[in-house]
Write a structure and sequence with these properties.
single chain, about 600 residues, alpha+beta, nine-stranded mixed β-sheet, five-stranded mixed β-sheet, 19 helices, binds adenosine-5'-diphosphate, binds magnesium ion
Length: about 600
């Protein structure tokens, strides 16, 4: 039965390697474009047909390949990028010398190149692993790598490819990531299915300026102007590691983590280490299923990170993952804390949109003349409360509303939950319940960090009946809860006795509080750290100390709330990631009324 051990020939081993390096057209594009970047190109053009299955062509203006190295270029384990002595000292995208031979093994590969300063260009073709002789070619500069009929030599692999559409989407994704990593390089992606000029799918010119300027412009092109309008600048360094880039405000969040772009020494990576640190940093501001959008660049001495962990190089291994994780976490946290009360601009846009759609279809006033519009369009008609519920209206000295008080001066409370404040150049609408919830939570956390949460003893302890498993769950957590100022004891059966509650909350409904804590305990996953769990419970507890909507506030109280929001970190969103306020600038309001 047994066959003898034998050495596989190059064609076979290249086909095997190709399985890892070239999984689909997009991975071939990645290898080809990375080669162009390594060659110092400033403009890179990618053309593809039928999702890249029939044609992929990358044209660059890099330094080219000398004629007498073309054969080596398509040979396995041949590279100009390392000498093999130090696999940790890598400054290029490539270094494995596998991409071109792999492509040549599973498709029809043609490389045309002219070494910078050389008198002429040359070309080599390799088809299904069979190499043709090098011959002269016409090309003014740089390199053109063309891969046709990917996987025609391995039909089994062809079956695993997606539709042309999904393969195109993957190609676009790869190119966008590389274009983010290299803002100084111009990229052009063209779909040439059916021949002819083709259709430009994506185009960015080389960006200029310092790192942040260039990156900002590039991200605006790729992720959109909305993204760059709602991000915080990240810039931190620790123990030989630096992190830079942009991360979104919590209020500009996404339903999945697909808008998170991470790079290590310029290399796009998808790494659990990043994902965990990001989740941790935002854990206070976002519910679990919401994700910030971000583009983060980690830079370090190549010796501190091993990029040779994965054939497609999409994973990395840090020598000290703790430092990297800590840096990402603290850089993000720091920026979020600095951001304080800032909230996303798109909220104001959304608000405006809502006003428009409310007002337009219903209101015949829009057809009347402008003078009428300006004089008789009363606040009632744009959805504010009617006069009787305008529970507070008072004069403020607007001289005082200076730049130090960006949330302005309280003017009114409407529907017993929304504060209207006037700022220098607009108005702010605050959800008093959401805002207060956040403030209580931040105060509780501060107390916790100092010396544990102060508690107050209930005059009459409350007995709360629970379901049997809840009873057990809450007793297991009793010690942790006590550190938060919530002291409970077993009362026999499935009841607990609440003896003390966090002092900051004032008078609370102990039954509702315990039930909420039980809910939170049920929701918490086993994998969360103790600190995260405590924070989550604290956040639940905070709701109970908050001004419930429906409570009338006096002018001083409202202004005190605004001032405290300005002074409190993260007060732009409630504990559930919803905004606590929205701002409408005067020019937005003017637009609303057709004045602009
Ligand atoms: P690696 O990038 O790991 O070195 P490749 O198989 O991708 O391996 O490429 C082999 C060699 O061919 C590279 O080391 C480089 O010298 C040369 N090469 C490939 N593409 C280009 C290009 N676009 N411009 C200049 N040289 C290139
Ligand atoms: Mg390469």
């Amino acid at each position: 039965m047994r066959t003898p051990i034998r050495q596989l020939d190059d064609a076979a081993s290249n086909r095997i390697a190709a399985g890892e390096v070239v999984e689909r057209p997009a991975s071939a594009v990645k290898e080809m474009v990375e080669n162009a970047i390594d060659a110092g190109a400033t403009r890179i053009e990618v053309a593809y047909a039928n999702g890249g299955k029939t044609l992929l062509r990358v044209t660059d203006d890099g330094f080219g390949i000398p004629e007498d190295e073309l054969v080596l270029a398509v040979s396995r384990h041949a590279t100009s990028k390392i000498d093999g002595s130090d696999l940790l000292d890598i400054h290029t995208f490539g270094f494995r010398g596998e991409a071109l031979p792999s492509m040549g093994a599973v498709g029809r590969l043609t490389i045309t190149s002219r070494l910078i300063g050389a008198a002429a260009a040359a070309q080599i073709s390799i088809n299904g692993g069979v190499m043709e002789a090098v011959k002269p070619a016409a090309l003014s500069r740089g390199t053109v790598v063309e891969l046709r009929d990917l996987f025609h030599a391995t039909p089994a692999r062809l079956k695993f490819l997606g539709t042309d559409r999904s393969e195109s989407v993957a190609i676009i994704g790869v190119l966008k990531r590389l274009a983010m990593a290299e803002p100084l390089i111009g990229f052009n992606l063209c779909d040439v299915t059916g021949g002819g000029e083709g259709r430009t799918v994506f185009k960015v010119l080389p960006q200029k300026g310092d790192f942040f300027d260039a990156l900002n412009l590039r991200l605006a092109k790729i992720l959109g102007a909305d993204f760059v309008a709602n991000v915080l600048r990240i810039d931190a360094e620790r123990e030989g590691l630096a992190i830079a880039g942009f991360a979104s405000l919590p209020t500009y969040s996404r339903g999945s983590s697909t808008s998170q772009y991470m790079f290590v020494n310029g290399r796009p990576v998808r790494d659990k280490l990043f994902l965990g640190a990001i989740r941790g940093a935002y854990s206070d501001f976002l519910q679990n299923y919401r994700h910030p959008a971000l583009a983060l660049f980690l830079e370090c001495d190549p010796n501190l990170v091993d990029v040779n962990v994965h054939p497609a190089k999409s994973e990395v291994r840090f020598r000290d993952p703790g430092i990297a994780r800590g840096l990402i976490f603290s850089a993000l946290r720091h920026a979020l804390v600095e951001a304080g009360y800032r909230t996303s601009t798109t909220l104001a846009d959304a608000t405006l949109g809502a006003f428009h759609s409310e007002a337009k279809p219903k209101s015949p006033i829009y057809q009347m003349d402008r003078n009428y519009l300006h004089t008789s369009y009363t606040p009632t008609q744009i959805g504010f409360a009617e006069a009787p519920t305008l529970s507070a209206r008072f004069e403020t000295n607007f001289e005082e509303v200076d730049k130090g008080q960006p949330l302005g001066a309280a003017r009114a409370q409407v529907h017993e939950n929304y504060l209207i404040a006037q700022t220098l150049d607009g108005i702010v609408i605050v959800d008093q319940h959401a805002a207060h919830e956040r403030l209580v939570y931040e105060r509780l956390k501060k107390q916790m960090a100092k010396n544990g949460t102060a508690s107050q003893t209930l005059l009459i302890p409350e007995i709360v009946e629970l379901a049997a498993d809840d009873h057990e769950r809450v007793l297991i957590a009793a010690l942790d809860l006590a550190s938060l100022g919530l002291v409970i004891e077993d009362f026999g059966g499935s009841a607990v006795c609440v003896r003390e509650t966090p002092a900051l909350l004032g008078e609370v409904n102990a039954v509702a509080l315990i039930n909420d804590v039980v809910d939170e305990l049920t929701d918490l996953s086993q994998t969360q750290s103790v600190k995260d769990k405590l924070d989550a419970i604290l956040s639940r507890i905070a709701c109970h100390g908050s001004i419930r909507s429906g409570r009338t506030m006096r002018a001083e109280e409202m202004n005190a709330l605004l001032r405290e929001m300005e002074a409190t970190p993260h007060s732009g969103q409630c504990n559930h990631g919803r905004p606590t306020y929205v701002e409408l600038k005067l020019h937005d309001i003017e637009k609303l009324f057709g004045r602009r």
